[in-house]
Sequence to fold (420 residues):
Amino acid sequence: MSNQPVGHTLTVRQRVDWLRLSRTEGVGPRTFRTLINRYGGAGEALEALPSLLVRNGRIGRVTTVAEAEDEIALAQRFGVRFVGLGEPEYPRLLRMIDSAPPMIGLRGNSAVFERPGIAIVGSRNASGTGLKMAEMLAADLGRSNCVVISGLARGIDSHAHHASLETGTVAVLAGGHDKIYPSENQDLLNRILETGAAISEMPMGWEPRGRDFPRRNRIISGLSLGVIIVEAAIRSGSLITARFATEQGRDVFAVPGSPLDPRAEGTNDLIREGATLIGSAEHVITALAPILGRDDWPPQAQEDASPSDDAPLWDELDLDQRGFGESHAVITSRQQIRPVASDDEGNGPYRVYAEQTPRQKLHELMGPSPLPIDDLVRLSGQSASMVQTLLLELELDGLIERHGGGLVSAVAIRGNGEIS
Fold:
């Protein structure tokens, strides 16, 4: 932005104005940038905005000074500080993406962003093998001086965060800092903040909705040199993160899975489409070696030359740069998503899962690949005796198969419901 050189710190008044402008309906990242460049500052843009809304046929209100100051005060009680695009604490890699948030709510240790960031994302209902792989990758990347970035979701995300707590990890939130989703991960977030950081672009008090998760995913990839997909079904939200990564010029890595496990279909497809197949953190470090430590990477994202019919991430004003007088269709940045059956009620990839029984949870951890019973005990959180009892029940029902060396696997189910 022309009036906001990198390294400049906002004044108290500027911070309030930036927050007001970013919180006003119809002002997404693109419109914010356009307004700042056109009027020279957030305060001037706020003065012009009411007439612009009317001119564009919008009925809306501009966020007031009192509302912005109240949000800043609430954020401070949670240890959150609002950082503007271009300020010293704003993560360098995130600043370079086409849809960088104008302001982020940041808490924790911002020094983690000075180290290389690698994202690890995957299925919420991951297999035990997938969870173990995520833990191994996260721990090894941490020992290699990388920061693990993920979305604080159940499954792969949570295990990646857990395994990198000592070395530093970053949680990107879909809601406000005071509305953690899922709520069960509040304790995990508290531990993350001891050495790492948490980021959100959403207002304090904001309950995450379906389309907020893809918005979060673009930040996950934007903070990272590369994105690792551990397990992802065909219509998984993790594939949205991979798509953003590709558009942002980041490397995409995928862990291959069994063709018999639906949770691996998306990752296997990514590999067929050109993602780098990996089996260890060393594979990732080797692939990224040419760019690690370079200040000129990544390059600015290039505009997509082909039009897209995808659903927008923001209901955003499109202001005519020349005269600001014409009304255009609502559009968004070029980074968009295909509808994936996720909505405000949490359906689709971000649906709220019903509470599972211990037996269901244990069975979900198993896939076609044999897994040690000791790992099932650790990953399930159940006692060894309980796991053995549940395994016996599953075996009697023909749902699992035992192998030598204390290994078990799930029995594959064909599309017609038959056990193969």
In short: Residues 12-104 form one domain. DSSP finds 15 helices and twelve strands in the chain. Residues 128-143 form the longest helix (16 residues). The CA atoms of residues 238 and 409 lie 25 Å apart.
